[in-house]
Design a protein that fits this description.
Elements: E1 11-14, H1 20-31, E2 35-39, H2 53-64, E3 68-72, H3 79-90, E4 95-98, H4 113-141, E5 144-149, H5 152-156, H6 162-182, E6 187-195, H7 207-212, H8 219-225, E7 236-240, E8 243-247, E9 251-252, H9 266-271, H10 273-276, E10 282-283, H11 288-303, H12 312-315, E11 334-338, H13 340-349, H14 360-363, H15 376-381, H16 383-386, E12 403-412, E13 420-433, E14 437-448, E15 451-463, E16 490-495, H17 500-504, H18 517-522, H19 532-548, E17 555-562, E18 571-579, E19 582-589, E20 595-604, H20 623-646, E21 648-656, E22 659-668, E23 674-677, E24 686-691, H21 692-699, H22 705-710, E25 714-718, H23 726-733
Parallel strand pairs: 1-2, 1-4, 2-3, 4-5, 5-6, 6-7, 21-24
Antiparallel strand pairs: 7-8, 9-10, 11-13, 12-15, 12-17, 13-14, 14-15, 16-18, 17-20, 18-19, 19-20, 21-22, 22-23, 24-25
Helix pairs in contact: 1-8, 3-4, 4-6
The protein binds 1,4-dihydronicotinamide adenine dinucleotide.
């Protein structure tokens, strides 16, 4: 059994402990080893009169049972005096339970100034005074536990208790802030809304119910919240009759009812009222940051023109769970005109530098081979997502402050002309339900004159709007692809400049999140972050440089997933793997393990000379091919014996230069074994990467595989121990 919760050595101050709930707390703390200050003014339920009797009786009761307690008869408004009693008697103060209270119930119209003030003085000001007096002591000792006592009247309102409910909810606000300010000093503050039989409730509740609402059924929660092992902080609980529940705020998705450069009108509020009040899809904000963060997101959307208020005609019927109307919706066509200026500005925005002479063609219009970077095509197509048109899609009711750019696909059918005007058509391809959010797929087809020049798919993730019972996948999705399970074939790095986002935004993404420090802070970032599409541009450049010699005509398609934010000034490291004409890549922040773009790839147009060596072509040139074929032949005779001994599948990546030129699999696990060209049909136990030349040296006994491994000439992935068995296979079965 878990050890009992003890309070030995702790000093607890309970206000209003002469009766009711406070008495139950005082007795329970004392019984578990705490030294208790029993504070009570000893007046009546309306706050009139005073007497030492109430506190004395409880102190006596505690002492009789062998506990430690002293009395305090001061009003809670004299907080310093009460805390001094604790310090004088026990030398410290660890726990404060703000419990003292009175009632002055009146209908609102009849509430006098005195009724109002007195209630506030005892409940709200009293809790403030006592807690403030204890606060510094708690901070110094780096420990404190505080309870505020609220009430269902405060949370929900109650007829005749305007003064009381106002003060009681005030205590929740006080507690919430103390929880934040105290956190770093290990001071926790929580609020309870109890229900218990006491003199306060005996006149309003029937006797049998009062019997079931013993103060003893509230005290255990208070003790747990005040124990040093309890991490709860800044929470609100309803408690009574042996039941405890936690409360939190809930918020609707809401609606943005304002557009950039347009007045906000009460009519727009009316038109969106159903949506504003629709609790079908809710979030549970937990901090001021959650609150302002949402507003900031809204501001940025409005600022970038990304909002269109619902038209009255369909406002009432739109909800986030009805996407049928949205799927297939065709947005109005739009035009993007550009000259070399915009293309160069984009290139500089994604890190092109004249430092590399081969990059000059992207930033100097006088270059004989001046070219637009292929990824510039995303900028030309993004108006559909950046402008307000998305908000006008019927059935698409999204909280724009929760929108993230999840993934991006771009396919180019021919290089972008150096200047031009593209006409784009966008439509909602599908809406997916991912549980924690929804994914909206926007397909954008862009035409130069009459010719389709590129296709973009924007995957927009809307946080918190999932769970509407929609499908989880779609054949419309352009899928990402996992990176190969081997060290990258090439790595390129580039340090983004501190002004990178400032430069990139000139290409049309004006979100202040990328430039304004205050704005970024409010959105929860230390400083402005780089645009995801800027990182995307860096990575695509790396692939183009490494594998296509900056030849834009070889760029066919790109797919990325945005995984983490990047800060301007960080060094981006693109890790690349060549698999035929597909270059898999992922982008990291150099020096960290953070992957900022994951499971991405670029598809290249094969060169006409077919110099691109893939697993299925040109391998006749490889010497290793003969060896693998021979291994296959021999296995046909003796395979079953080897399978018994080895029981593993080996995948070979034979490299030529920097590229994987062929893949072979030696399956010594199933049947009587076999060797075949290509990756393992199931999963490989060990993957071995070795050059064609080194492979030949190994099979000819000139190079010891273990030495090759330790010198880095042979790389092994997966179950490396198994590769020890390779020697046997290669020695016995690879003889030519
Ligand atoms: P109670 O009337 O039995 O206990 C309150 C105690 O506070 C009394 O002993 C009283 O003498 C003392 N007190 C009043 N003014 C004081 C002052 N200025 N300084 C020091 N002590 C003072 O009432 P009960 O029911 O035990 O209430 C305890 C707390 O729980 C109160 O804050 C009350 O508002 C709250 N509460 C109680 C509910 C219930 O169902 N009993 C419901 C919701 C809230």
């Amino acid at each position: 059994m878990a050890s009992p919760l003890r309070f030995d050595g702790r000093v607890v101050l309970v206000t209003g402990a002469g009766g009711g709930l406070g008495r139950a707390y005082a007795l329970a703390f004392a019984e578990r080893g705490a030294s208790v200050v029993v504070n009570d003014i000893g007046g009546d339920v309306k706050g009139d009169g005073k007497s030492s009797l109430a506190a004395d009786k409880v102190v006596e009761e505690i002492r009789r049972k062998g506990g430690k307690a002293v009395a305090s008869y001061d009003t809670v408004e004299a907080g310093e005096k009460i805390v001094k009693t604790a310090l004088d008697a026990f030398g410290r103060i660890d726990i404060v339970v703000n419990n003292a209270g009175i009632l002055r119930d009146r209908s609102f119209a009849r509430t006098s100034d005195e009724d109002w003030d007195l209630i506030h003085r005892v409940h709200l000001r009293g809790s403030f005074q006592v807690t403030r007096a204890a606060w510094d002591h708690m901070k110094k000792q780096n420990y404190g536990r505080i309870i505020m006592t609220s009430s269902a009247s405060g949370i929900y309102g109650n007829f005749g208790q305007a003064n009381y409910s106002a003060a009681k909810l005030g205590l929740l606000g006080l507690s919430n802030t103390l929880a934040i300010e105290g956190r770093k000093s290990n001071i926790h503050c929580n609020t309870i809304a109890p229900a218990a039989g006491s003199r306060m409730t005996e006149t309003v509740l029937p006797e049998d119910i009062l019997e079931g609402l013993k103060p003893d059924y509230v005290a255990p929660l208070v003790l747990w919240l005040c124990h040093e092992s309890c991490d709860e902080n800044g929470s609100l609980f309803e408690v009574g009759a042996g039941w405890i529940g936690k409360l939190r705020w809930q918020r609707t998705v809401g609606a943005i009812v304002r557009q950039r450069n347009q007045p906000m009108t009460p009519e727009a509020v009316r038109a969106n009222w159903a949506k504003i009040c629709d609790f079908d899809n809710t979030s549970t904000p937990q901090s001021v940051q959650d609150s302002t963060g949402s507003m900031i997101g809204v501001l940025s959307k409005i600022d970038s023109g990304g909002v269109s208020t619902n038209r009255t005609s369909h406002a009432a019927s739109t909800t986030t769970s009805v996407f049928d109307e949205a799927i297939g919706y065709q947005l109005p066509p739009f035009y993007s005109a550009y000259t070399e200026l915009e293309a160069i500005m984009y290139a500089l925005g994604v890190g092109v530098s004249v430092k590399d002479p081969k990059d000059l063609k992207f930033v100097y219009e006088g270059s004989s081979d001046f070219s637009c970077l292929p990824t510039f095509a995303v900028v030309l197509a993004q108006k559909s997502v950046m402008s307000g048109d998305l908000g006008a899609v019927p059935g698409l009711s999204i909280n724009l402050s929760k929108v993230l750019h999840g993934e991006q696909y771009l396919e180019l059918y021919k290089p972008l002309p150096r200047t031009g005007k593209l006409r784009s058509e966008a439509r909602v391809a599908d809406v997916l339900d991912k549980g924690s959010g929804s994914v909206i797929l926007i397909d954008v087809y862009s035409y130069y004159e009459k010719e389709l020049i590129c296709y973009n798919q924007f995957s927009i993730f809307v946080v918190g709007s999932g769970g509407f019972g929609g499908k989880q996948s779609s054949d419309k999705v352009k899928e990402t692809a996992a990176i190969p399970n081997r060290p990258p074939d090439a790595v390129l790095t580039d340090t983004s400049s501190h002004d990178q986002a400032a430069l990139y935004r000139l290409s049309g993404d004006w979100n202040p999140l990328h430039i304004d420090p205050d704005f970024a802070n409010l959105a929860g970032f230390d400083k402005p972050i780089l645009h995801g599409l800027c990182t995307f541009g860096f990575s695509a450049r790396h692939v183009l440089k490494q594998f296509a010699d900056n030849d834009v005509s070889r760029f066919k398609a790109i797919k990325v997933r945005f995984a983490k934010p990047v800060y301007p000034g960080q060094t981006l490291q693109t890790e690349m793997w060549k698999e035929g004409n597909r270059i898999h890549f992922q982008t990291k922040i150099q020096g960290s393990r953070d992957i900022v773009i994951s499971n991405a790839y670029v598809d290249l147009v094969p060169t006409s000379g077919a110099s691109d060596v893939s697993t299925t072509s040109e391998d006749g040139e490889l010497q290793s091919t003969l060896v693998f074929k021979e291994i296959g032949r021999r296995l046909k005779d003796v395979g079953h014996k080897v399978v018994k001994k080895v029981n593993a599948v080996f995948e070979w990546h034979i490299t030529k230069g920097r590229n994987v030129a062929a893949k072979w699999t030696i399956d010594l696990k199933s049947g009587s074994g076999e060797a075949y060209q290509g990756p393992a049909r199931g999963s490989a136990d060990t993957t071995i990467i070795i050059s064609d030349e080194d492979f030949m040296e190994v099979v000819q006994g000139k190079l010891d595989p273990q030495k090759a491994f330790f010198s880095g000439r042979l790389k092994a992935r997966g179950n490396i121990m198994l590769s020890q068995k390779l020697q046997m296979i290669l020695k016995d079965y690879a003889k030519l």
